[in-house]
Write a structure and sequence with these properties.
Layout: E1 4-11, E2 15-19, H1 39-48, E3 57-61, E4 66-69, E5 75-83, E6 86-88, E7 91-92, E8 98-101, E9 106-109, E10 114-122, E11 152-155, E12 177-184, H2 193-201, E13 204-206, E14 214-218, E15 233-234, E16 239-241, E17 249-251, E18 258-259, E19 263-267, H3 272-276, E20 283-288, H4 291-313
Parallel strand pairs: 12-20
Antiparallel strand pairs: 1-4, 1-11, 2-3, 3-10, 4-9, 5-8, 5-10, 6-7, 6-9, 12-19, 13-14, 13-20, 14-17, 15-18, 16-17, 16-19
């Protein structure tokens, strides 16, 4: 495939960056994983455009960019994730389905309606700098930069069928108040019974200063037992650390590789997209789940994505 210009950036948006499924396998060397916050929305965008599921997309945060199509030929694209009122030449552009964009088209975004992060995929994929086998942008680690005004975006466009999409019933709904399931441990014993009761039985508010590295929660303090001390260990996506002040922090895509705060639990993988799309000041309730049940949810999610990919490849969906 030959590389060619796809878009010119006239407005970059608040935070628009290339993201894929992250730098897996390098955390042991101190390299953060990073990657898409909502990995399901990213994979569906790629499936709808015929790309491998882990292909890098543009992750759009709250206020979208303005892009002008500079490709000399039509390109096939799909936008999934948060509803940020995408428009083509000032007319509404459907989400969760592949669409055709033509030379000179202007892609813009309007008002925020639901969710936080949208994903733009193009058939054939984008060209972007690759670090440790990933194109994911991680500014604090020096891996890439967010989009900038005047930037030219290139890629390897291929001819893919437009009009492939999810039904209304299949599209996720992003709420401002969510319940997520938590696998307890590894440091559950470090917390008082009062702290555990507060963790599971109260509403936690996402602090407006939260970001891709972690969600700070506002709630009654989750108290620890006296004299608690742990070794620093590897931290997963969705791990919930609790510092001495008792305010939980949910570790997200750009988290550090290790942490020394007690971890009360980890949000199960299948619920991470709900977290990724929760708006600032959104509400969270936690509920415990056995690890076997969490694994079953993950298997069901993977089966759904695999079947969707197969249906697209066979031209059925």
């Amino acid at each position: 495939m030959q590389e060619q210009k796809l878009f010119q950036v006239t407005k970059p948006g608040v935070l628009t960056s290339f993201q894929d499924l992250g730098r897996t396998g390098y955390q042991q060397y101190g390299v953060p994983v990073s990657g898409a916050m909502d990995q399901v929305a990213l994979q569906i965008a790629n499936i709808l455009t015929g790309n491998p599921r882990g292909t890098a997309c543009l992750e759009v945060t709250l206020i979208g960019p303005e892009l002008v199509v500079t490709s000399p030929t039509p390109i096939t694209a799909a936008i999934t994730g948060a509803s940020l009122e995408p428009k083509r030449n000032s007319k509404p552009l459907p989400m969760w389905q592949s669409v055709r964009l033509y030379p000179g088209d202007r892609l813009t975004f309007g008002r925020h309606q639901a969710g936080v992060r949208a994903y733009i995929a193009v058939a054939g994929g984008f060209q972007a700098p690759e670090y440790f086998q990933s194109k994911s942008t991680d500014v604090k680690s020096g891996f890439g930069r967010p989009l900038e005004k005047g930037q030219s975006i290139t890629g390897f466009p291929i001819n893919a069928k437009p009009g492939i999409g999810l039904t209304s019933a299949e599209r996720p709904v992003y709420n401002k108040s969510i319940t997520v399931s938590v696998i307890e441990g590894p440091h559950t014993g470090a917390f008082t019974q009062e702290g555990l009761d507060r963790f599971y039985n109260t509403i936690h508010i996402v602090d407006a200063n939260s970001n891709r590295m972690g969600y700070k929660l506002i709630s009654k303090p989750i108290t620890q037992k006296d004299g608690v001390s742990i070794w620093s260990d590897a931290v997963p996506f969705g791990g919930i650390q609790v510092p001495k002040n008792g305010a939980p922090i949910i570790l997200m895509a750009d988290r550090q590789t290790t942490g020394g705060y007690p971890r009360i639990g980890t949000v199960m993988t299948a619920d991470l997209p709900k977290l990724a799309q929760l708006v600032p000041k959104g509400e969270i309730r936690f509920q415990p789940i056995p690890v076997e049940a969490a694994q079953e949810h993950t298997r069901q999610l993977e089966t759904y994505l695999h079947n969707l990919e197969t249906f697209y490849q066979n031209g059925i969906c």
